[in-house]
Design brief:
Layout lengths: L2 H24 L6 H26 L7 H18 L4 H25 L4 H20 L13 H4 L1 E2 L2 E2 H19 L1 H11 L1 H6 L4 H27 L10 H11 L11 H20 L4 H32 L1
Antiparallel strand pairs: 1-2
Length: about 325
């Protein structure tokens, strides 16, 4: 078994083990039960968004607008509950529908104008981030209903509610991608869109559906974040676009599409979460944290590129 094959099968688990071992030695209280639960709670919102981004990336696309979607969705929910006095459930349904619409529009613009999805979502990211500040003038919204805090701050036993929701979303996504025809279509489209089209897959409709799924899942994370902070922040999710892609690629999701699993993405999420928590416990400056995560992203993309090149060479030799 060569190094690339070994990394593809076991690399992310080895990385997670090494990162945990490093911080267990150099970060005080890292292995405490309270801190480990805190890590899981911290990565739950982020992980839910990564699950949505994974659908898009396996299908051969990219979505950089998830952070902006979280911000606008949160601001709208904050206004409806705190300012208009709307009940919790209708507010949640409205925000989920609105955010899903954002995703569908991303997909429609990409397929109808034939623009690479990363460019489209880069534009919508800037639009939505700006809109979140325009809506409230850059000020957070407070005064949310007390019952709403259970979604982001509640526990079932000792397990935080966001962690339970992360597990549920991940399990459903795993089932859809690995056990349904829809999942097979996603992999086929990401691997070779033209071959998928000739096989009868409506590639354009599927692409729109994947962006809508990503945004629907993002809306869940947005509501959890809103509940956890008990306020709507216009800067919510600002770091998510690139953090999500880092976690996904680190977890084996190929930028080229057609490869990766939900399980791998979840491990990638845990690696990023442990990095963030461990560096914070060690008192590392936030700017250096950004440098380290950037290095991780470049390294993960580089490994992905080498793997794809090796795969092409092997296919050509066969």
């Amino acid at each position: 078994m060569n190094a690339l094959v070994f990394y593809k099968k076991y690399g992310i688990f080895l990385i997670l083990l090494l990162v945990v071992a490093f911080f267990a030695v150099f970060a005080s209280n890292f292995l405490s039960i309270d801190n480990l639960l805190n890590v899981l709670r911290q990565v739950s919102m982020f992980g839910i968004v990564v699950v949505g981004v994974t659908f898009v990336m396996i299908g051969g696309g990219a979505d950089l607008s998830v952070g902006g979607q979280m911000a606008v969705s949160g601001m709208v929910a904050g206004i409806l509950m705190a300012k208009a006095g709307m009940p919790i459930l209708p507010t949640m349904l409205i925000c989920m529908a609105l955010t899903t619409l954002f995703g569908a529009l991303n997909g429609l613009i990409s397929v109808k104008l034939n623009i690479f999805s990363m460019i489209v979502t880069l534009g919508t990211m800037l639009i939505l981030q700006g809109l979140a500040f325009v809506i409230t003038g850059g000020y957070p919204i407070f005064g949310l209903p007390k019952d709403f805090t259970f979604l982001g701050q509640g526990y079932v036993g000792i397990v935080p509610v966001p962690v339970i929701l992360f597990v549920i979303v991940s399990a459903i996504a795993w089932f859809v991608l690995s056990k349904t025809y829809f999942g097979r279509y996603v992999y086929a489209m990401g691997g070779n869109p033209e071959a998928a089209r000739l096989a009868g897959v409506n590639v354009e409709r599927m692409r729109v559906a994947l962006f809508a799924i990503c945004s629907f899942v993002t809306s869940i994370a947005s509501l959890i974040m809103l509940s956890r902070t008990n306020s709507a922040q216009p800067s919510a999710g600002a770091s998510y676009p690139f953090d999500c892609m880092t976690a996904a690629v680190l977890g084996g999701i190929s930028f080229a599409g057609g490869e990766g699993t939900i399980g791998g993405a979840v491990v990638g999420v845990l690696i990023i979460g442990v990095l963030n928590n461990g560096l914070l416990l060690m008192g590392v400056d936030s700017n250096w944290q950004g440098v380290i995560k950037g290095i991780v992203l470049v390294t993960a993309v580089g490994i992905d590129s080498v793997q794809r090149k090796a795969k092409r060479v092997k296919a050509a030799e066969a």
